[in-house]
Amino acid sequence: MTHSPIIPIDIDNWQPSPRTGANWQEMLEGGAVLYCPALRFGLEKGEERFLDASFSDARRKSIYIRADRPGLFGTEVAEPERRGLRAMLERFEAQSMGLLAGLFPGYSGLIRAAGTSYRPRPTGRPEAALSWRKDDTRLHVDAFPSNPTQGMRILRVFANIGTVPRVWRVGEPFEQMARHFLERIPEPRPLVAQLSHRLGITKRPRSAYDHYMLYLHDLAKADLGYQRDSSQLTFAFAPDSVWICFSDQVMHAAMSGQFMMEQTAHLPAAALAFPAQAPLAVLERLAGRPLL
Ligand SMILES: [Fe+2]
Q: Is the peptide bond before 80 cis (omega within 30 degrees of 0)?
């Protein structure tokens, strides 16, 4: 394929200083996955014991903390393991936010940590009960039914802390994907969106933008022909490496791997230097009208 979405960058510490001439932000906003093969999230003494799938609650895929509410979720373990897991997650959050600040100084003061998770279970073997909608081995952009973003971007930092590669499929550019599915998306229904918000089904009203994003997520995952035939590449993120992308823009599917850390950051659309490349602008262009 001509489109090469994975761009290696040669940094080896979590506090990189801004580099003259580095166009990391432009590549990121253009839909690249920035891959840091020489950057690792180091475990502290005693944390190796957490490299064990049984720490995870059977019903959840991650152990996680959230920026907007206290607590440790997704595990039923007791102290002192809870404290240890929490410390590991908080350290990853701090290092990831430092990394984003160093790589993308243009986002300073606007970017916010949203949540941090650890996935101790192997990826790529979905339980039989898992619906296709939750099957992350299918190519998709991130969009969540209960959590409309209203244009806020989803930026994610991933670290492979296991001993096997984490294998992703990365799909075609956002605009190509959106063009492929656009005509199958029904018109948004603002009254339903308001009602869903009032009933507490969504955290805030689902905008037309969120409506389109959710349909793109679902239509792509449901379309096995698209999953098989669309332009894509398979890439193995090495053990002890880190990668970063806008997961609401990059078509991705996690095929295999075990033991991954993930930091989610939210970024207002106003912080983007190249807003015309963002899903909102692409969809507004294709739909021919404002979606927020
Ligand atoms: Fe995803």
A: yes
